[in-house]
Design a protein that fits this description.
The complex is a heterodimer of chains A (about 120) and B (about 120).
Chain A: E1 4-7, E2 10-13, E3 19-25, E4 32-38, E5 44-51, E6 57-58, E7 67-73, E8 76-81, E9 90-96, E10 107-108, E11 112-116
Parallel strand pairs in A: 2-11
Antiparallel strand pairs in A: 1-3, 3-8, 4-5, 4-9, 5-6, 7-8, 9-10, 9-11
Chain B: E1 2-5, E2 10-14, E3 19-21, E4 24-27, E5 32-39, E6 46-52, E7 60-61, E8 64-69, E9 74-79, E10 88-96, E11 104-105, E12 109-114
Parallel strand pairs in B: 2-12
Antiparallel strand pairs in B: 1-4, 3-9, 5-6, 5-10, 7-8, 8-9, 10-11, 10-12
Classes of the chains: A mainly beta (about 120), B mainly beta (about 120).
């Protein structure tokens, strides 16, 4: 089946630094990808929709200048957490829509665990 | 707007028995899809089952079945013959129909299978 990868799987950084997370569709093209955030023992919350060739769409309350999204190609979307702070520590996970028209499974990457010291 | 409610923060089930995880939803979309995902401690989201709002029959996938009651806006997951490996967090989600779906997730149910 279709596979979505994320890199890195985990990252620890100092407060004030920026961190880039990559989301790749390995064997299919994705014009749209979704970025979610999950705090410990909580649910996944949609942060933004990444669109190839156009600007990302951010959910209410998500700072677009802090969470920069670039959909560089049909197989790659990146999320950059700028000037990270401890409250940005979370599990970030991306997803891509079904590969085939009419397909139902939404594919998720394995996630990236970010810890900001 | 969409909302998913999972009222069971935690559930216990004996190995080999069946268990039902509750999910109710609210959506303004006329056509929508309901999803169940399993999230083990590793964090990966494992797709289990899907139900379309216009599907006449309840979805089944191996040991998983979805008890879909549209009028009650209910989409409960039934796991039959529970296994120790089923212990995980389970999320119900709703999304619009179509090829590009952003999902709204419930708060999840932590299932523990007892030997």
């Amino acid at each position: 089946g279709a596979v979505v990868s994320q890199h890195p799987s985990w990252v620890i950084c100092k407060s004030g630094t920026s961190v880039k997370i990559e989301c790749r569709s390995l064997d299919f093209q994705a014009t749209t990808m979704f970025w979610y955030r999950q705090f410990p023992k909580q649910s996944l919350m949609l942060m933004a929709t990444s669109n190839e060739g156009s600007k990302a769409t951010y959910e209410q309350g998500v700072e677009k200048d802090k969470f920069l999204i670039n959909h560089a190609s049909l197989t790659l979307s990146t999320l950059t957490v700028t000037s990270a702070h401890p409250e940005d520590s979370s599990f970030y996970i991306c997803s891509a829509p079904p590969v085939l028209a009419g397909g139902n499974e939404q594919f998720f990457g394995p996630g990236t665990r970010l810890t900001v010291l | 707007a969409q909302k998913i409610t999972q009222t069971q923060p935690g559930m216990f089930v004996q190995e080999k028995e069946a268990v039902t995880l509750d999910c109710t939803y609210d959506t303004s979309d006329p056509s929508y899809g309901l999803f169940w995902y399993k999230q083990p401690s590793s964090g990966e989201m494992i797709f289990l089952i899907y139900q379309g709002s216009y599907d006449q029959q309840n979805a089944t996938e191996g040991r998983y079945s979805l008890n879909f009651q549209k009028a009650r806006k209910s989409a409960n997951l039934v796991i039959s013959a529970s296994q120790l490996g089923d212990s995980a967090m389970y999320f119900c989600a709703v999304g619009p129909s179509g090829s590009a779906r952003q999902l709204t997730f419930g708060s999840g149910t932590q299932l523990t299978v007892l030997p």
